[in-house]
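User: Predict the complex with magnesium ion.
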Amino acid sequence: MVAQTIPATMQARSHNGRMIELTNITKAYAMGTQTVHALRGVNGTIDRGEFIAIMGPSGSGKSTLMNIIGCLDTPTAGTYILDGVDVSDMTDDEQARIRNRMVGFVFQQFNLLPRTTALKQVALPLMYAGFGRSERLERAKAALEQVGLGDRIDHKPDELSGGQQQRVAIARALATEPSIILADEPTGALDTQTGEDIMALFQELNDQGITIVMVTHDPEVAQCAQRTIQIRDGLIVDDGRGQAEGDA
Amino acid sequence: MNLSESFLTALDALLANKLRAVLTMLGVIIGVAAVIALVSIGNGLDAFITGEIQSIGSNLLFVTTDSENSGGYPALSLDDVEALSDPFNAPALAAVSAEIGGQQEVIAYGINERTAVNGVTYNYFDVNNYVVELGNGFLQSDLDTRARVAVIGPEIAETLFGDTFPIGESVKIGGVSYEVIGVTEAKGESVGSNPDTTIFVPLSTAQSRLYPRRTRTGERAINLITAQAVSENQTDAAIEQITETLRDQHGIIYASDDDFTIISQTALLESFSAITATLTLFLGAVAGISLVVGGIGIMNIMLVSVTERTREIGIRKAIGALRRDILLQFLIESVLLSLIGGIIGIVLGASAAFALSNFLGELVPTVDLGTIVMATSFATAVGVIFGLYPAWRASNLRPIEALRYE
Ligand SMILES: Nc1ncnc2c1ncn2[C@@H]1O[C@H](COP(=O)(O)OP(=O)(O)OP(=O)(O)O)[C@@H](O)[C@H]1O
Ligand SMILES: [Mg+2]
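Assistant: Here is the predicted structure with magnesium ion placed in the model:
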């Protein structure tokens, strides 16, 4: 399956149970003459199979952190070890491979391709992973069935409800059988009922062993997670394990 | 991800916006169509001129006066023709004919017409590939007796005599009556003259009655000697023999230049081919410029497309597309645009060339494979060259910024 395409070194080290290891991660944006410090030295770990909620005020650096965890962005400084592999200084294409094989993204705005059927959307990461056409469609169909959209595979985004679109996005995240699913406010654009359905789906995926990291503003949604990490001003103020990282 | 996947992805994107794709292609379509049409016409022109020159006869050599070295007099006379006809002087020559000509007022049945009247030797029709269709050509005796007989072109025959059978009729040339003894077969207008409207009379008759010019030594002049070499590879030898014989005839000393010029049919063909080749190249280059303009149009639209689809690129990258995947996708899009445009252009250009051939008479445009291959590869190259930068821009987008793009 997907594992066959992941280098042996990644698998060999994955037995220690540690999925994510962040050490002194900082992220600074140069804005003209000013520098914005989005992350100011984040330390923390997430274990295999955990379901994490990240909370914090707007602008505290939650999305920035998620992007770094998902290898969409690189930290300004610090070390990030993902499943035993140091990914802090990878090239664009190396990061793309990690995103393709290990990470599944679920965004607040769904981020589906316009004018593309659900089946094709979900098959897309499998295409970049190098699967043949028939296997791609088979797996995409299975992923869509898993999120309860087996009867909507030929629908385009504008022919689907918000909740259904988010399910397509989740199916797409699942297609390559990643180790982690990263969801940045996945219920932010959905009504309460639909949001609850999506959370139930996440719960189900987590039960199957997939690590889930989710940003949310909604304490009720955060309840679904096993652990909640609190962020403020670019620092983790509570990692949900009982020992706080002070801002000294 | 392999090439055929990139191809299908690119095709999908183009089909999603058909009108724009077609409008973008328009530049290339017009460019390629222009290249094909103009180069075909150029090739057709070349074939036409070659055919014309070859229809004059084969292995011909034309001798005329070199006016710069002849002191204002015609240089050639019938004595020269006789000397060249002697196999002892010019064994490489099979036949030698001569002519003198000009425009004359001709009258028949009250119809007044100004047309070319040429005095020719009896073998003129053979050497120059004329067929006397009705009646007869000239005999040596017609030349000996300065007979007032004429062989006329089919068009002038029609003009002067209409439906009347022309043989035996008389035509007045320069105030003197001539009996029509023959009509030549239609040859069609050729470069610079029209044999179908020409009236031929015996050379000696023309010299004494119509064109009384004389050479420096007082011989009756002729304009042109047309000599036929025995074979194509004897033309060089023939040129040498003609030069020597005529220098001897004209008493030209070693230090002086020839007072005549020899042009071979081959040289004529070559110089005309060089002209049409240059013309074709020029037409092709002008059309090629419009192809480049078409390429700039593609680049423009591809850049717009990359900007518009920034978010799509971000999504693709987020789920694992490599730089190469994005690069190929957009590059193939622009190559498809130019290639499809090129193919439509070829069809349109060829159709235009053939449609034009209705107006070009005997000039038949020639669409050859070389032109098609050249235009297609040029169009593809345009797609690659002008697609490379937009594709490179797309592949270089940072996924995080692309995703945030509104
Ligand atoms: N590309 C960027 N350029 C400059 N500053 C940025 C950029 N991205 C984020 N920031 C800044 O970094 C800080 C953290 O942003 P981030 O998006 O991580 O916040 P957030 O916690 O996700 O907020 P929200 O809950 O509103 O989504 C903010 O102050 C923001 O202005
Ligand atoms: Mg955010």
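Residues 19 and 309 of chain B are 17 Å apart (CA to CA).
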